[in-house]
């Protein structure tokens, strides 16, 4: 109830809508998206129908989201984030194992394979995390979500919002790593599955918007 | 509260018109059998959306001045948001835009609602238009600076300044028409919007010669003349709700038709220049909110000032702010 209300507010303010329905199959999902704003996971979370919203957990940076009481409360109580350390990772931390365990429990994940927010909306190369996760938990559907304009609502390093309309486009699931496919090829394929959802013409997509 | 019987008659007339269009749409779809054309389905969603828009507008008019100013504040916000969403603005304009949405827009509507007529007329053309380029220059990015500034100023001018002249009609002092200005607002919105509807209908039925195929392929001379004359006839027939005699009412309707057409044409050119067909998806069948408001953008300020001129209206009394607002702005000096 409280979450539905918050999700409704986010949808009204960011104009975020589900542009296409996420695939109806009842496997667990990993929503992977381009990353340019703190709003990104909130928007995906808000755009989902409430049945799916109840089981989704964003993967977020531990150093940022465990600082301060408000952020901690948001991360733990509201969004139930899976917090992953970004610096000084010890083998015992096993971030991929942690995420796979969440999928194992029947929850879905929101994952940003670029690792960090892009300053200008350009979709960078994917880090290896998505590949490792797909190998570790091959039964989850990998659903690309292309986020538009969120870097204009709240870009990196800004605290004031500009209420332009954002958009979250959910694509058909991307097939996991194929036999004999190299890590680089898989990551490149996953990235182009994401970029295909952009409404910009393919030749400009993934590059910063020009005036 | 006593509601003006003439206003009730206007609302009843509009509802009758809606019922008629719903019936006609229904018959057309029934006659098309199993496979109505996309144009018919679009017509149906347009008529449905009209019901919603009329309901909202009617309730706001009944609720009075504060509700109407609140509604136009929200409409300006939504229209500007559609405009900025489609106009690529770089990172350097981010803070400027925050100021526009969260400071300039509410302040302008505060001055309008107060009313502080003097400030209402100059706040955006002077203060806001000085502020916008200054804030963008402070961000330090000189790439296409003039174009970026013009882009933001155009949005502020049309979506905030021009549009806000509609609720400002409520304050226009007209001899022998005190407390009846809501009807004048209703008249402007009705004639301008019906002009669009009539032009659409005539264009669909008899449209041949395109006026500006590159800018707005839907606009034809047949649509403009047939639709425009119908709207003028409607406006003239409604002269009794306005402070005008029949002939001036016809002339003012003509002004609304022409300004409305030109507003639609110019906003269409802006749309094409950023490469889209509709401003958004806010209103099913119509496109975005700006697609519905575009004809009112030019019509509102032109009608407002011509009406003031016609009645020799003296706004000097309202060119100073009300006491409470003046004391806020003087900071006790």
Helical proportion of chain B?
A: over 70%
**What share of residues are in beta strands of chain B?**
under 5%
Total beta strand runs of chain B: 0
Radius of gyration of chain B: 21 Å
The structural class of chain B is: mainly alpha
Neighbour order of strands in the largest sheet of chain A = 3-2-4-1-5-6
Work out the helix count of chain A: 9
Mean pLDDT of chain B: 91
Sequence-ordered SSE layout with sheet pairings:
The complex is a heterodimer of chains A (211) and B (333).
Chain A: H1 2-14, E1 29-33, H2 39-47, H3 50-53, E2 56-61, H4 62-65, H5 69-78, E3 82-84, H6 95-104, E4 108-111, H7 129-136, E5 141-148, H8 150-153, E6 167-170, H9 183-195
Parallel strand pairs in A: 1-4, 1-5, 2-3, 2-4
Antiparallel strand pairs in A: 5-6
Helix pairs in contact in A: 1-2, 6-7
Chain B: H1 5-31, H2 38-63, H3 65-86, H4 94-113, H5 117-138, H6 145-162, H7 165-168, H8 181-206, H9 221-237, H10 246-273, H11 289-310, H12 323-330
Task: Describe what is shown at a glance.
The complex is a heterodimer of chains A (211) and B (333). Chain A has 211 residues and is α/β, with parallel strands linked by helices.
């Amino acid at each position: 109830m409280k979450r539905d209300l918050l999700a409704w507010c986010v949808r009204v303010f960011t104009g975020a809508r589900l542009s296409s329905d996420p695939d109806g199959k009842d496997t667990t999902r990993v929503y992977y998206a381009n990353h340019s704003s703190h709003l990104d996971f909130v928007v995906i979370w808000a755009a989902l129908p409430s049945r799916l919203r109840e089981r989704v957990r964003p993967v977020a940076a531990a150093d940022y989201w465990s600082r301060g009481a408000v952020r901690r409360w948001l991360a733990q109580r509201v969004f139930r984030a899976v917090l992953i350390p970004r610096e000084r990772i010890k083998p015992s931390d096993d971030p991929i194992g942690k995420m796979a365990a969440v999928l194992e429990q029947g929850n879905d994940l929101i994952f940003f394979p670029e690792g960090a927010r892009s300053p200008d909306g350009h979709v960078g190369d994917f880090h290896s995390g998505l590949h490792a996760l797909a190998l570790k938990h091959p039964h989850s559907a990998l659903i690309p979500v292309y986020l538009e304009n969120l870097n204009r609502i709240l870009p990196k390093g800004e605290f004031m919002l500009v209420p332009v309309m954002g958009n979250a486009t959910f694509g058909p699931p991307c097939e996991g790593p194929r036999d004999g496919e190299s890590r680089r090829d898989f990551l490149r394929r996953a990235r182009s599955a994401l970029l295909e959802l952009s409404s910009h013409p393919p030749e400009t997509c993934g590059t910063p918007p020009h005036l | 509260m006593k509601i003006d019987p003439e206003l009730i008659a206007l609302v009843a007339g509009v509802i009758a018109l809606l019922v008629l269009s719903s019936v006609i749409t229904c018959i057309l779809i029934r006659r098309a059998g199993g496979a109505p054309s996309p144009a018919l389905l679009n017509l149906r969603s347009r008529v449905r959306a009209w019901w919603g828009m009329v309901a909202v507008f009617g309730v706001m008019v009944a609720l009075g001045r504060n509700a109407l100013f609140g509604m136009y504040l929200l409409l300006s916000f939504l229209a500007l948001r559609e405009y900025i969403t489609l106009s690529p603005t770089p990172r350097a304009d981010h803070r400027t835009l925050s100021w526009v949405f969260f400071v300039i827009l509410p302040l302008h509507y505060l001055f309008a609602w107060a009313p502080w007529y003097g400030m209402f007329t100059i706040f955006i053309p002077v203060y806001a238009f000085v502020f916008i380029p200054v804030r963008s220059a402070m961000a330090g990015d000189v790439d296409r600076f003039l174009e970026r500034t013009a882009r933001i100023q155009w949005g502020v001018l049309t979506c905030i300044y021009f549009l806000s002249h509609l609720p400002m009609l409520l304050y226009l002092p007209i001899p022998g028409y005190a407390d009846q200005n809501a009807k004048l607002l209703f008249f402007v919105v009705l004639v301008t919007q019906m002009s669009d509807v009539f032009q659409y209908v005539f264009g669909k039925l008899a449209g041949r010669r395109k006026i500006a195929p590159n800018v707005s392929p839907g606009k034809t001379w047949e649509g403009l003349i047939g639709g425009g004359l119908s709207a003028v006839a409607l406006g003239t027939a409604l002269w009794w709700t306005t402070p005008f005699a029949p002939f001036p009412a016809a002339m003012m309707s003509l002004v609304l038709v022409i300004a409305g057409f030109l507003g639609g044409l110019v906003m269409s050119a802006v749309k094409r220049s950023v490469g889209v067909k509709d401003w958004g998806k806010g209103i099913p069948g119509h496109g975005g909110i700006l697609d519905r408001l575009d004809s009112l953008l030019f019509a509102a300020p032109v009608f407002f000032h011509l009406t003031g001129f016609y009645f020799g209206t003296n706004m000097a009394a309202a060119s100073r702010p009300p006491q409470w607002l003046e004391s806020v702005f003087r900071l006790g000096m």
